[in-house]
Each structure stands twice: as C-alpha cells, then as structure tokens.
Amino acid sequence: MTWPRAPWRHTTGIWALVGCEVRTSEPLRFIDWITIGYLALTAVIAVARLEIRPRAGWVLVSNALILGLILLLRGPQLGRAGRLLREIYPILMLPAAYGGLDLLNGFDIPVRNLTVRGWEELIFGSQIS
Fold first, then answer.
1. pLDDT tens digit string along 49-108?
2. pLDDT per residue over 91-123, tens digit each?
C-alpha cells in the first residue's frame, strides 16, 4: 500500500538510494510566525526591563514554553489531539500573553476600564465587554 505524498515529505541522501521516505516537520504557518514575532518582541522588552522589574523573568520563561509548544506542534505524526491543539493554541496562549503585559509594565500603571467602556458605549451602543 502506498501512502499519498505530503508536501512535508521528501527523499534525500542514503534514504533515496534504498527507496525510503523521510518525514520531516510541517512548515511554520503565518500565525506561527506572528506568534514567534510577538514572543521575540516581548522577550526583548522583558530583558530590557529585567533590572527594574524582576518579575519580567517570568515572561521569558513563558515565552520559552510557548515557543517549545509551537515547535512540538510541527511534528510529522500528530494525532487528533495534537492537530486540534495546533489549530487552537493561539487562542489558548492569549491569557498568558495578556498576563505577561502586567509583568512587563508593572502593576502600578493606572487602568483605563471606564474610558474603554465609554468608547464601547459610543461605538457599539452598549458595552460588549
């Protein structure tokens, strides 16, 4: 039985001589690149603010874990759960990314909830949040 050839499969080197296919990782998607860019940007900010905000180190730890997840989800033999996680991980990482902003900025910055609620009332006619 011959399996259909996927774009991430290729035959190279010694494996081509014996007729074997080597399965490699899937390429990064656009959302993966955007996520990696966001992780890199917040990591640079965290390193720059590490002296005045020591808790920013947790952002670096979180970014490393999320990057590891992205790379693991590129595996060639993901099961059903892995494929599902690959599709929804950007949504699942939002709370970590949003919480990281507090660690980078500090908790002493005033929150503008009333201002944003006023904008929502003006634009949408009600508060959608």
1. 999 888 889 999 999 999 999 999 988 888 899 899 999 999 999 888 888 888 888 777
2. 999 888 888 888 888 777 676 778 888 888 888
67-to-28, 56, 57, 73, 116 alpha-carbon distances in Å: 12, 17, 15, 10, 32
Within 13 Å of residue 91, how many CA atoms lie on the same side as its CB?
Answer: 5
Phi-psi category of residue 116: left, alpha or beta, with phi > 0 → left and psi -120 to 50 → alpha: alpha
CA pair distance 46, 56, nearest whole angstrom: 5
Query: What's the rounded Cα separation, in Å, for the pair 21 and 5?
Result: 9
Burial class of residue 38 (count of CB atoms within 10 Å of its CB; 0-12, 13-18, 19+): middle
d(CA 85, CA 88): 5
At a CB cut-off of 8 Å and minimum separation 6, what does 104 contact? 42, 45, 46, 49, 53, 56, 59
